[in-house]
Specification:
Blueprint: E1 4-6, E2 8-10, E3 21-22, E4 28-31, E5 36-42, E6 48-52, E7 57-58, E8 61-62, E9 66-70, E10 74-78, H1 83-86, E11 91-96, E12 102-108
Parallel strand pairs: 1-4, 2-12
Antiparallel strand pairs: 3-12, 4-11, 5-10, 5-12, 6-9, 6-11, 7-8
Length: about 110
């Protein structure tokens, strides 16, 4: 399998009928303009770790990946993601320690 792309959904004043995708075992990606965030819902029985890849460097030093723990039965909004830190050719790459009963969506204003 390969990383699965999420469609970024724009939040509007008249309301958004949001949609979520199952977290992909090989990770997800989404287009990022710096105003995008990720919503992770963990319906599983254990906590998961969401890893946001940081491909860039500062002063020739690698930037540590961002990790966020999402407890079982809870959800988190993660972001925004400054493009100079997180973008892989315009996209953010996300990985999960587990994907069973985990859904995700990408949103921007």
């Amino acid at each position: 399998m390969a990383r699965s792309a999420l469609t970024v959904q724009t939040i509007v004043k008249t309301g958004l009928a949001d949609t979520y995708a199952s977290a992909n075992v090989d990770g997800n990606s989404f287009a990022n303009d710096g105003a995008t965030f990720l919503h992770v819902k963990n319906g599983g029985g254990s906590s998961i770790t969401v890893t946001i890849d940081t491909p860039n460097t500062v002063d020739d030093l690698a930037i540590s990946n961002r990790t966020v723990t999402v407890a079982n039965g809870s959800e988190k909004m993660i972001g925004p993601f400054p493009p100079g830190v997180y973008n892989h050719s315009g996209e953010v790459y996300v990985d999960y320690s587990a994907v069973t009963s985990v859904t995700v969506g990408a949103f921007k204003l």
